[in-house]
Amino acid sequence: MPTPLNVAVAGAGAFGRNHLRVYRELEQSGLPIHLAAIIEPNPAATYDVPVFASVEACLAANLKIEAASICAPTMHHASVAQSLLAAGVDLLIEKPFAPTVAEADEIIALAAQHQRIVQIGHLERFNPAVTAARSHLNRPMFFESHRLSIFTPRSLDVDVVLDLMIHDLDIVLSFVASPVREVRAVGLPVLSDKVDIANVRIEFENGCIANFTASRVSTERVRKLRFFQPHQYLSLDFARQDLLMIDAPVGIASLTPAQLAALAAAASQDASHPSAGLSLRKVIVEQGEPLRLEIESFLESVRTRTQPVVSASDGRAALALALEINREIAAHAHRAGLSR
Questions:
Q1: CA 8, CA 92: separation in Å to the nearest integer?
Q2: pLDDT at position 43, please?
Q3: What is the rounded distance in angstroms from the CA atom of residue 117 to the CA atom of residue 100?
Q4: At what angle do helices 101-114 and 77-86 cross, to 10 degrees?
Q5: How far apart are CA 133 and CA 127, in angstroms?
Q6: Nearest to 211 by CA among 231, 244, 182
Q7: How many Å is the Cα radius of gyration of the chain?
Q8: How far apart are CA 238 and CA 233, in angstroms?
Q9: Which residue among 74, 103, 284, 324 is buried most deeply as judged by most CB within 10 Å?
Q10: How many other C-beta atoms lie within 10 A of the C-beta of residue 42?
Q11: Phi, psi (rounded to 5 degrees) for 41
Q12: What number of CA atoms fall less than 13 Å from residue 117's CA on the CB side?
């Protein structure tokens, strides 16, 4: 039996409590980990784990912490990460990676210096529907993303791009694997002093186009990504963990109008195929909690000293794009006279 990894959670707010829950569940299931400490200056609950007001106090207790989740407010990510990395601790840092690209670069440099693993908490990468979709990628050329939430006072230290849209930016960047060529964006504050709703159009160097809409002032909760690639359309629902695929036969575009009409007539006789010549199928997706899958993957990287699924470089790329989008939103607001 491997020696249990001593893990800590820095930040016991909404995200931190979920990390604590998962680490406890994994420990109770027999996974070789031990939840050894919580770092939280203002604990709102009583825990059966030692709680420390600072990273320094935790390290001084000599608990031999080997891995930690950083779930503190984004503005504190760099300072917490720097202390833990210097102490030889591998890190899972909640998204967004840091407030600035410069701070993200500092963390990356420190991780390299101390030979530590840093994974960024883009948990939707571990959504089973995303995992299923990845195996069907074939040069996607158009994306349509909608991530809408009902307003809550959570995460108001960042805008909707860094709070919600960044999940989809990370996924699309990993799917397209091409540099960004152009960004157009518009956004507005509605119920907070930061942008609460945003719409973005991104063009990549390979010609792919992606449209993103994110809102935290919606009347409903929506988490969907649709994308198109040659002869295929895929619809992904993050909340339901569903993946729907529609295939068009190769060569359908070359059919004559008469042939298409005959195909449509044949399809109309079959209620299961309402679209002419198209094959609709629901991909089998093995359900799972993305956060648990994310933490399990992180712990495996720590044990095996292998590159995490969502690397620090991936987190930096998503952060850099999100900040570029915010600059475009600010520029649009200025041009439109909204900044006044």
A1: 10
A2: 86
A3: 20
A4: 10
A5: 10
A6: 182
A7: 22
A8: 16
A9: 74
A10: 7
A11: -70, -25
A12: 22
